[in-house]
């Protein structure tokens, strides 16, 4: 983890690392002790894939995702095994192509579907590439047992930490709000506000299923819902204060942690808040900031702080909007390309290795995931991780071939993989490569394949990159354009909100706008990492997103009772942008915060006046 250049440190997930070590080592130990090594290895493969999809989201969502992934992988393994046992020369390639078509058709429909589709294809590659003795039903059940073990290890803390994940997510919003208030009036204000948006997005996703359920008064979940509703309103107030662009004193910056100490008293709130306020008290007012006595945002913060001691669940946005994926034509293109890449990889594997040529199509299934990360970066990390993993497991086997030592190495690599899936894909690939070598060796394949697997990985990555950038070079660009278009439309809906709209509707539109703008920013960053066609640059999507974020901040200030932003001058509107799905995009429409507004003689519009539009199509409302 790096701390330089403003990169925020992320704690090492020790609990997940421990789960990864136990989940991978336990089936192998049981298999060695009982003599059932083959089912144990298959259970280890299931645990390996389960560790790769373990996460820190709420326990029920985690168990549901792992369960769907396990079922898809087991069905894929069964289909591949039956195709291999049939003995027909076209059965294995046909099964792989059919699985690739099915996996590709669902992979761009959402994150959960993408994970299930990928593991369906992975199950088929293992089933068609590794002959397994015994009855046909045993391998799928063994693999599913490994996934169930990961589910049990991952979800067991629910028994004594039932809502701790939700509580931590809501608490993070208050901390992010305090950081944003601290950065107000500084060059880092917008970045801090974006971190607040990310914290709100995460808390909203974590709390999503609880927002539509009835809760009994006085319960922990009811208190969490009340704290989340206050957090939604705090986000609006904080955005307005950031838009005002004036530094705030410490007693204003400390309001969010004081509120958190009152609303979430049984956890690790900020030390300053614990020293300043007792759990049964709440700040009744926010002292005025010199020169800003008329600030509606400060008055709203004071009212919200006074209300926090009697927070009750209110009407809030029940679900975050699903961000747009590729259209049907793009889904069909990805499906066909994935199937072609898998077929070419399988033919190359049969030519190079004959049977047991699973590594090439398996690597294609892992690498060709344009919805997970830029394809070029993913391919490079896969190659680097494979080289390092081969070197690591090669060093271990040079020292010893003792079974228990190798199982210990699998446990260590399982812990590394659990960390890698949260921090760096190359690190996760390093651990996965080493574990697979041990598992295959325990199945009886003692061939020295170190150099062959490195070449196979490079060949599979080359197949994916050639197919992707030759036949679909604008995939990331198209998704970024769709995401940006949807985000700007959400910002316009928030801008056009009626003044007498219900608070629940206002917060829902505000959250949808900021959430989609954050997703669009990530999609644009994704597109910027992908090489495009020579001489073709990306439109100014990032400038448009920044302008829309500032517009939403200004609308938040307007909704709290203040004046809207001054009408932008010509210099505040950037050039028009164009995307693959829209011939007109918004310009970089700026807004003028109170501290930089024109003087009394400048023209101002009343709140009910019509919107002033930039020449590029981005409206700024008063």
Poorly predicted runs of 5 or more residues: 1-7, 267-284, 563-591, 596-622
The oligomeric state of the chains shown is single chain
Q: List the helices and strands in order.
A: HHHHHHHHHHHHHHHHHHHHHHEE
> What's the total count of β strands?
2
Task: Give the key terms.
single chain; 622 residues; 3 domains; 2 strands; disordered N terminus
Can you describe this structure?
The chain is mainly alpha-helical and 622 residues long. It has three domains: 12-159 and 324-471, no CATH class; 164-310, no CATH class; 475-531 and 539-597 and 605-620, no CATH class. The protein is 65% helix and 1% strand. A two-stranded antiparallel sheet has the order 1-2. It is globular and about 75 Å long. It starts with 13 loop residues before the first helix and ends with a strand. Mean pLDDT is 79; it is low at 1-7, 267-284, 563-591 and 596-622.
Q: In a few lines, what is going on in this structure?
A:
The protein is 65% helix and 1% strand. It has 622 residues and is mostly helical.
Chain-wise SSE layout:
Layout: H1 14-34, H2 37-53, H3 59-86, H4 91-107, H5 111-129, H6 138-155, H7 164-183, H8 189-207, H9 220-244, H10 250-253, H11 255-263, H12 271-276, H13 296-307, H14 328-353, H15 359-367, H16 375-399, H17 403-423, H18 425-442, H19 450-471, H20 475-495, H21 503-529, H22 541-559, E1 612-613, E2 619-620
Antiparallel strand pairs: 1-2
Helix pairs in contact: 1-2, 1-6, 1-17, 2-3, 2-6, 2-17, 2-18, 3-4, 3-5, 3-6, 4-5, 4-14, 5-15, 7-8, 7-9, 7-11, 8-9, 8-21, 9-13, 9-22, 14-15, 14-19, 15-19, 16-18, 16-19, 17-18, 20-21, 20-22, 21-22
């Amino acid at each position: 983890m790096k701390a330089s250049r403003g990169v925020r440190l992320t704690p090492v997930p020790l609990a997940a690392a421990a789960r990864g070590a136990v989940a991978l080592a336990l089936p192998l130990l049981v298999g060695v002790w009982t003599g059932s090594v083959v089912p144990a290895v298959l259970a280890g493969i299931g645990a390996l894939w389960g560790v790769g999809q373990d996460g820190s989201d709420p326990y029920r969502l985690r168990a549901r995702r792992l369960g769907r992934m396990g079922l898809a992988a087991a069905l894929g393994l069964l289909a591949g095994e039956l195709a291999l046992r049939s003995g027909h020369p076209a059965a294995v390639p046909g099964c792989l192509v059919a699985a690739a078509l099915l996996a590709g058709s669902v992979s761009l429909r959402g994150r959960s579907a993408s994970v299930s589709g990928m593991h369906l294809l992975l199950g088929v590659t293992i089933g068609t590439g590794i002959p397994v003795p015994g009855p046909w039903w045993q391998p799928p059940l063994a693999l599913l047992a490994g996934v169930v073990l990961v589910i049990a290890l991952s979800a067991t803390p629910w028994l004594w930490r039932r809502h701790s994940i939700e509580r931590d997510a809501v608490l993070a919003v208050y901390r992010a709000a305090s950081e944003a208030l601290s950065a107000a009036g500084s060059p880092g204000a917008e970045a801090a506000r974006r971190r607040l948006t990310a914290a709100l997005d995460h808390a909203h996703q974590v709390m999503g299923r609880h927002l539509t359920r009835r809760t009994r008064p006085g319960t922990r979940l009811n208190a969490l819902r009340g704290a989340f509703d206050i957090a939604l309103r705090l986000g609006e107030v904080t955005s307005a204060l950031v838009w005002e662009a004036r530094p705030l004193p410490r007693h204003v910056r400390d309001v969010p942690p004081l509120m958190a100490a009152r609303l979430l008293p049984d956890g690790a709130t900020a030390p300053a808040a614990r020293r300043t306020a007792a759990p049964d008290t709440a700040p009744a007012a926010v002292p005025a900031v010199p020169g800003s006595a008329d600030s509606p945002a400060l008055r709203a913060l004071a009212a919200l702080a006074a209300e926090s001691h009697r927070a009750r669940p209110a009407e809030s946005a029940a679900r975050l909007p699903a961000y747009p994926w590729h259209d049907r034509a793009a889904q069909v293109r990805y499906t066909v390309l994935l199937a072609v890449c898998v077929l070419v990889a399988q033919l190359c594997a049969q030519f190079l290795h004959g049977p047991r040529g699973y590594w090439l199509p398996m690597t294609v299934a892992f690498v060709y995931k344009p919805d997970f990360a830029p394809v070029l970066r993913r391919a490079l990390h896969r190659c680097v991780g494979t080289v390092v993993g081969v070197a690591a497991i090669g060093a271990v086997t040079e020292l010893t071939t003792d079974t228990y030592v190798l199982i210990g190495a699998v446990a260590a690599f399982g812990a590394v993989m659990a960390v890698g899936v949260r921090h760096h894909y190359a690190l996760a690939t390093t651990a996965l490569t080493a574990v697979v070598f041990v598992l295959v060796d325990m199945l009886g394949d003692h061939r020295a394949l170190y150099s062959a697997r490195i070449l196979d990985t490079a060949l599979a990555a080359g197949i994916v990159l050639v197919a992707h950038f030759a036949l679909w070079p604008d995939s990331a660009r198209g998704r970024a354009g769709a995401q940006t278009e949807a985000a700007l439309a959400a910002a316009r809906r928030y801008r056009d909100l009626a003044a007498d709209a219900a608070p629940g509707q206002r917060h829902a539109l505000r959250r949808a706008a900021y959430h989609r703008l954050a997703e669009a920013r990530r999609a644009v960053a994704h597109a910027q990492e992908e090489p495009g066609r020579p001489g073709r640059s990306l439109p100014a999507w990032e400038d448009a997103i920044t302008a829309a974020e500032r517009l939403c901040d200004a609308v938040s200030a307007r909704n709290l009772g203040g004046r809207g932003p001054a009408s932008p001058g010509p210099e505040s509107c950037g050039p028009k942008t164009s995307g693959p799905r829209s011939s007109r995009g918004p310009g970089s429409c700026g807004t003028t915060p109170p501290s930089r507004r024109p003087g009394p003689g400048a023209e101002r519009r009343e709140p009910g006046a019509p919107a002033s539009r930039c020449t590029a199509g981005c409206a700024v409302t008063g």
